[in-house]
Design brief:
7 strands; 171 residues; two-stranded antiparallel ribbon; mainly alpha; three-stranded parallel beta sheet
Length: 171
């Protein structure tokens, strides 16, 4: 399907289905763009509750999440939404609002920025921290491994860089 044709296809749909599976090696998409596109198009999403999909799809609010490989649960979720146009409408609207509010590049960049700024506030020693922004949890980020590396790189770059004007907001 050509990318230019996708908006028309989403508009013609009543709901979006993604029964995602891990491949034989255990690989799976993190958070497939098609889920975000469907939500932004106002469609309720029925998808497998694996990987990053539950970060976007809230079961019972923006769609239905089903266990990976459970055909019976998938059929039940689809039948529920096919038989309830008002429920599809409500879930689609909530999904669109969530996509506009939380799933844009600007929103994601803001959460990363907040995490880095939080890391810069702590001394450079290993600790476990939890970041929560706009309902997203990243509990258990290991500052000692992940953020401490960024902190050291930032300090090194800052020490070597000429003085810069004050930081501008990304938003």
């Amino acid at each position: 399907v050509l990318h230019d044709e996708l908006p028309d296809l989403y508009r013609a749909a009543d709901l979006f289905v993604l029964p995602a599976l891990h491949d034989p090696s255990g690989n799976v998409d993190g958070l497939p763009n098609v889920v975000l596109e469907a939500m932004a198009s106002g469609l309720p999403v029925v998808a497998s509750a694996i990987s990053g999909i539950p970060l976007a799809v809230v079961d019972g609010e923006t769609g239905r999440l089903v266990p990976e490989g459970d055909g019976a649960a998938l059929a039940t979720a689809l039948a529920e939404l096919v038989e309830a146009p008002e429920l599809r409408q409500r879930m689609g609207e909530q999904g669109r609002r969530k996509a506009e509010r939380e799933l844009t590049w600007d929103a994601v960049a803001a959460r990363y920025r907040e995490a880095y700024e939080l890391a810069l506030e702590f001394p450079a020693r290993p600790r476990r921290i939890a970041v929560r922004a706009d309902g997203w949890d990243a509990a258990g980020i290991n500052e000692g491994r992940l953020l401490n590396t960024s902190l050291q790189l930032t300090r090194r770059a800052t020490a070597q860089a000429p003085e810069r004007p004050a930081r501008r907001s990304l938003m």
